[in-house]
Amino acid sequence: MFKIERTTPNQLFRFFIDSETNRIHSGSLYGGDQDSSNEFVNHLFSSIYSFKAERLKIGTSRFGKNSTLASDAANLPEVLNILQSDTVRFKRYNSYVRRVFPQIFQGTIRPSPSQDHNVEIVVWNEDPEMERSDLVCSIT
What we know:
alpha+beta, 2 domains, four-stranded antiparallel beta sheet, three-stranded antiparallel beta sheet, 3 helices
């Protein structure tokens, strides 16, 4: 059991992790006039990502306007496509990718050449300043 204490005395929230199923079960928030445990749990769960060590097909997804990454990253191309329009943040994202994978100069999102209404992630293994878009690789 974990306990998160709040600044007001006698207010706490409890949740439990079932070791057999690895599922989180919520308790309740004690104190105050309103029980806000559901709001807290919903916020907590929307901020937790869990990835399994397996090769997922996350290189292509439907074009859309959802900027929240799904817990299984199935909509990663959609989310990155939205992020790509914010050039400062997308540049920072690419700097993180390059830090982990130095052989990748940058990643970008483009319409899928084989599936209508889909976008795909491509990586640039050569410097984009060379203007050789024919050398990009799809991660699918």
